[in-house]
């Protein structure tokens, strides 16, 4: 009898996170859907997964907060078992702005929510996965952004810089734990149809920019989820420290 693998998806209540949670559950994983504040969305998704026979829990946690991260991982240990996969997806975006108009409060909020959160979740995952610590190995997939390459000038260079940090985290951590049974990879989505564009103050941003995308359209959350799942699967067993760009050629 095989043991059911366990996946934690941070920011799993909407967009890319929700599509990823659905896919992992469909493929037989026990899933933890993490959310920060939108309990309705997370619980609705969990109910949908369980209605189709999947195993799923929701855990409220601000993953930029160390105590919340520790509590979330302890909850998963207790209710689902040993973690196999961590998908770091939670993040925030502020209104479009030039750097000269950004406050320290805004910058620090972006960095804490988008960078510190990934570090903390990776730390707790490695503690559990690493063969050095008696674990059975595992996979971490970080969700970065095409903004890490473009810099997002005149819109959100703070967000872009936070995602650049995630690229570096991916590379460094992948080398740190490669001999301990853990693979660490990264996806870099481009213009994807999610609510995040509304968070930035322009819900129709993809419509404005799609003409510069070689494939002439925005991407779907499910397309990013498929890439995340592949990187987490045994089909990508020789891939670590790599970046998969999902930007329609942009």
Automatic annotation (TrEMBL):
It catalyses: a (3R)-hydroxyacyl-[ACP] + NADP(+) = a 3-oxoacyl-[ACP] + NADPH + H(+). Keywords: NADP, Oxidoreductase. The keyword Oxidoreductase applies. One of its GO terms (molecular function) is 3-oxoacyl-[acyl-carrier-protein] reductase (NADPH) activity. CDD domains: SDR_c (cd05233). It holds the Pfam family adh_short_C2. It comes from the Bacteria. Catalyzes the NADPH-dependent reduction of beta-ketoacyl-ACP substrates to beta-hydroxyacyl-ACP products, the first reductive step in the elongation cycle of fatty acid biosynthesis. Belongs to the short-chain dehydrogenases/reductases (SDR) family. This is 3-oxoacyl-[acyl-carrier-protein] reductase FabG.
């Amino acid at each position: 009898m095989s043991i059911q693998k366990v996946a934690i998806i941070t920011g799993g209540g909407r967009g890319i996170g929700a599509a990823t949670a659905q896919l992992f559950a469909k493929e037989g994983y026990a899933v933890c859907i993490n959310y920060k504040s939108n309990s309705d969305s997370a619980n609705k998704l969990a109910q949908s997964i369980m209605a189709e026979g999947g195993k799923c829990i929701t855990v409220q946690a601000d993953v930029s907060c160390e105590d919340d991260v520790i509590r979330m991982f302890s909850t998963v240990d207790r209710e689902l078992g040993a973690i196999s996969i961590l998908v770091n997806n939670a993040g925030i975006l502020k209104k479009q702005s030039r750097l000269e108009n950004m406050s320290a409060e805004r910058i620090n909020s972006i960095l804490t929510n988008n960078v510190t959160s990934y570090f903390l979740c990776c730390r707790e995952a490695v503690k559990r996965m690493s063969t050095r610590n008696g674990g059975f190995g595992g996979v971490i997939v970080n969700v970065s952004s095409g903004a890490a390459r473009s810099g997002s000038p005149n819109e959100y260079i703070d967000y872009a810089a936070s995602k650049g940090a995630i690229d570096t985290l991916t590379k460094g951590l992948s080398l740190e734990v490669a001999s301990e049974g853990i693979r660490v990879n990264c996806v870099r989505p481009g213009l994807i149809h999610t609510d995040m564009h509304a968070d930035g103050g322009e819900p129709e941003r993809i419509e404005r920019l799609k003409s510069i995308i070689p494939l002439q359209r925005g991407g779907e959350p499910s397309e990013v989820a498929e890439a995340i799942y592949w990187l987490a699967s045994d089909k990508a067993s020789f891939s670590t420290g790599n970046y998969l760009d999902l930007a329609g050629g942009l």
